[in-house]
Write a structure and sequence with these properties.
This protein is of the alpha+beta class. It is built from 28 helices and 22 strands.
Length: 720
């Protein structure tokens, strides 16, 4: 009965998004889900959501930096996004004397706004180029397709490129390569920091609360887009002017209630909802446990130093946050995949597919080919994870590995002297950047620990030849932690990457032999060359074969039930998508109910003076105790709402995405998912999945009451 139920369930869910599942292409909403959106509470027309010829909501949504979403909220190019999306820019603008990361920052006029290295991209239009791509690839074998597709894409995107106006096309393969969609973007390069709360507000709860509900985090930051005087994208200049956007989002302070419509625009990074069972098995048994274990070690040693010294905390903040975020995610993902029997569900559907595929030459051997492909690669999967997350998890080793291109030029006798000199200068710049962010005590411990973990956990036949033998000969038993500590100490003491005199001597007369003798480079190089020489081609073959099998498998799934294709959505791939759902409470487990909002009461309950994760600014405590909520109070709760949850389908990349009500007004910023549904990249849970959002009223309260930046409030179009 259980198997029959699972098969019945999957015969529906793999053909059609269920409940609030789905990351929909904005240009196709009218053909796919618009009627359901209206039924759920949407009051806007399809053209108000997405239009090529008229201003629409899509014109207010941006790619923020390289991996987040942001939204335009004023007629002067003001951006709202998450605090963790602006984190690097905020920390980069900070010094020990002016620690904007710790203390917060608000510009009270445009002259005070701070230059950043960020870019933002606006979506100009979306074009289906499937026919053009497939016509160019018609009749080619898989190997021929994979070699040619890049050139085909380039030939299409070259037609829309307009450097003067910042326009460029990017083609995304949808449905595992069965559809090809071009997104045309306009890039702006003068982005300035306008405001951010103190880190204790923006990251309140830290790693303890990460991926958890209830939440009380003010995860927002504020930036502005600048253009040349004629409105075109331009590099930073004091003469630039604020962007006049095509569209910006009004901001609602009306409040919300359980069941209210919610819509999220943004750039979800990646999902693999059509993953094969063999992929689930590899992830659960090797990839995720390896990553979690290695990141655990890195976080441990960084945290030890960060809590000792504010300067070190500032130095490591960005890297620590990045490592910690997905450490917890992959730990939770594995647990949820196992808990909800996702492997069994995938296997059941594959049995159904196999029965359908019998007698169909294009599809009948797909699953057997998948099985062989995974069997061929699995013995080497741990080694690859331990290289990326372990060996190169050391900041020093990572920096040293970047000198590989320099080594290649020094080894090549035909390399012109001018090119070698250029490579040395580039290496010097990289070295300087590395040293700015390097914390010696923590990194030395990371180097020792991860090197030993590789030795203990990875099959000995896959070790770099002679490397561990040389450590044993010089430092002692490989079963002794002290051996690796002594070795790591010497690496740090003797590398020219940390010694200016040694580096200067090398730069003055660079040779491959001198570089190869450096202990940090020798270490990184031994493991990288071991991988590239023996295993990189195996991984490449594995991925390429998987891609082709995935394309055919997806094609087969669509042919199983062609009537349901209109209700299918492609996996996330950092192209603009729209999801819709409702504000909604949930029951995570027996006898436990979670409300759909959190309030200031919860902040005061969690507050621990001086704590690393739960401290708060003194003026915030004072204002909250006074209940000075101003116009941002939630009248139904008689309190300040901090965060809320919705049923929207999102993933990484949606950070900073606007949460929009049925009338097109901004009500919050999406910033996280809940722990109970961390399997969402592979399997959406219609009952437990929740998107965690910061209420825009809390954002405005922080700007106004904590920051005193009424100039920012006055710039917004408030809906009361």
């Amino acid at each position: 009965m259980k198997k029959l139920f699972i098969m019945a369930l999957l015969s529906i869910s793999l053909f059609k998004a269920q409940a609030d599942e789905g990351m929909w292409l904005p240009m196709l909403l009218g053909k796919q889900v618009y009627a359901d959106m209206v039924k759920r509470g949407l009051k806007l027309t399809p053209e108000q959501l997405y239009s090529i010829n008229k201003a629409s909501i899509k014109d207010a949504i941006i790619i923020f930096g390289g991996g987040c979403t942001g939204e335009i909220v004023s007629s002067q190019g003001l951006i709202f996004t998450n605090h963790h999306c602006g984190y690097s820019a905020i920390s980069g603008a900070s010094t020990v004397e002016h620690n904007y990361l710790a203390d917060g920052f608000y510009a009270y006029n445009k002259d005070q706004e701070i230059q950043s290295k960020l870019t933002v991209q606006f979506l100009d239009r979306i074009v289906d180029v499937t026919k053009e791509v497939e016509d160019a690839l018609k009749g080619l074998s898989y190997e021929e397709r994979s070699k040619k597709i890049g050139d085909v894409y380039k030939s299409i995107t070259d037609k829309v490129a307009d450097k003067e106006n910042g326009l460029a096309g990017r083609i995304y393969a949808m449905f595992k390569g069965n559809q090809h969609i071009m997104y045309v973007y306009k890039t702006y390069r003068d982005i300035r920091l306008v405001g951010a709360p103190p880190e204790s507000v923006g990251k309140f709860g830290g790693d303890t609360d990460n991926w958890e509900w209830p939440r009380h985090t003010g995860d927002f930051s504020i930036f502005r887009v600048y253009t040349s005087k004629d409105g075109k994208p331009a590099e930073y200049s004091k003469d630039n002017v604020p962007l006049k956007p095509k569209y910006f989002l009004p901001v609602s302070i009306k409040g919300l209630k359980d069941g209210d419509y919610s819509m999220i625009y943004g750039y979800p990074g990646s999902t693999n909802r059509y993953e094969i069972s063999y992929g689930i098995k590899l992830k659960n048994e090797i990839e995720n446990p390896s990553l979690v274990g290695l990141r655990d070690v890195r976080l441990k040693y960084m945290h030890e130093q960060m809590i000792k010294d504010p300067a070190v905390k500032l130095k490591l903040a960005d890297n620590y946050a990045s490592v910690a975020n997905y450490w917890k995610f992959f730990d939770g993902e594995t647990k949820q995949l196992i808990k909800y029997h996702v492997y069994d569900q995938k296997k059941a559907f594959e049995n159904k597919f196999e029965a359908w595929a019998k007698g169909k030459p294009e599809f009948e051997n797909i699953l057997q080919d998948y099985a062989k492909n995974y069997a061929d690669w699995t013995p080497y999967a741990k080694q690859r994870q331990y290289l990326i997350e372990g060996i190169l998890g050391s900041h020093l080793a990572g920096a040293a590995s970047g000198l590989a291109s320099l080594e290649a030029k020094l080894l090549d006798n035909t390399t012109p002297a001018a090119e070698k000199e250029k490579a040395i200068k580039a290496a010097a710049q990289s070295r300087a950047s590395f040293k700015e962010k390097e914390d010696l005590p923590s990194d030395e411990k990371i180097l020792a620990a991860t090197c030993m973990m590789f030795y203990n956990d990875v099959d000995k036949s896959q070790h770099p030849i002679g490397f561990y033998e040389s450590i044993k000969a010089a430092y002692g038993s490989l079963n002794d932690e002290a051996t690796f500590k002594k070795w790591a100490h010497d690496v740090f003491a003797k590398t020219m990457l940390l010694d200016d005199a040694r580096w200067s001597a090398f730069a003055a007369a660079p040779t491959a032999a001198a570089l190869q003798e450096d202990p940090a480079f020798a270490y990184a190089s031994a493991f990288i060359k071991n991988y590239t020489g023996k295993y990189a081609s195996l991984y490449s073959a594995f991925r390429n074969k998987n891609d082709e099998l995935g394309r055919l498998y997806m094609k087969g799934i669509m042919e199983m039930n062609p009537a349901a294709v209109k209700k299918m959505y492609p996996d996330a791939n950092f192209s603009m998508r729209v999801s819709y759902g409702n504000v909604k409470s949930y029951n995570p487990r027996d006898a436990v109910h979670y409300d759909y909002v959190t309030t200031s009461k919860g902040i005061l309950e969690k507050y621990i003076p001086g704590d690393y994760e739960f401290n708060l600014p003194a003026n915030q405590i004072e204002l909250l105790k006074k209940r000075d909520f101003g116009q941002y109070i939630d009248k139904s709760r008689n309190d300040l709402v901090i965060n809320f949850i919705t049923t929207n389908d999102i993933t990484g990349g949606n950070s900073g995405s606007p949460v929009i009500d049925g009338n097109g007004n901004l009500i919050g910023l999406a910033f996280d998912g809940n722990y109970e549904a961390l399997s969402h990249k592979i399997a959406f849970d219609k009952d437990l999945n929740r998107t965690i959002c910061v209420d825009v009223r809390y954002v405005l309260w922080c700007i106004d009451k904590l920051g005193g930046a009424k100039n920012i409030i006055n710039e917004l179009k408030l809906v009361r």
